[in-house]
Amino acid sequence: MIAIIDYDAGNVKSVEKALEYLGEEAILTREPEILLNAEKVILPGVGAFGDAMAKLHGYGLVDVIHKIVEKGTPFLGICLGLQLLFESSEESPGVDGLGVLKGRIVRIPDGEGLKIPHIGWNSLTYPNEGRLYKGIPENSYVYFVHSYYLQAKEPSIVVAETEYGVQIQASVEKDNVFACQFHPEKSSGVGMTILKNFIEIGREDK
Fold this sequence. Notes:
alpha/beta
């Protein structure tokens, strides 16, 4: 069973529907016991960094997320869920992120011909090998909706990048923690393959 963390964030239902489409049992929950016993956990989200952290604290989910990660459960952050895994964001000065991974979130700089938020399909390149991208060729397109992007402290964790005025770190992997700035659940066949690859992690040898 895959648990989706319910903290009143946008876009949660589309992730649930994508997993059901792939034949997976998915449960939307904020119950610590269910989250801690799930086979895999997903933190999706659309919205503001500070509001999201306030909700995670309000529901007592910050410690739960750290325990899930520490016990080695495969964990996937999507869009805002990626950003929350890091230490801070320019969107909400003074608000600490989860700090599961090292780095900060900064605003996409204004540029000629660039619209912010960045909404649309962009192609991926792979600076490092990533388990989520098995069977997905470089330059495959995925769907983004964001105004802020990641600057990770460890370049080795960045497994996918795209270009939008600046080089955007589009996906990271470290141990059992995975995250995508884009929306795999809205990225057609490529996105379904990414989610399927996440689902298969830990099942390969069984």
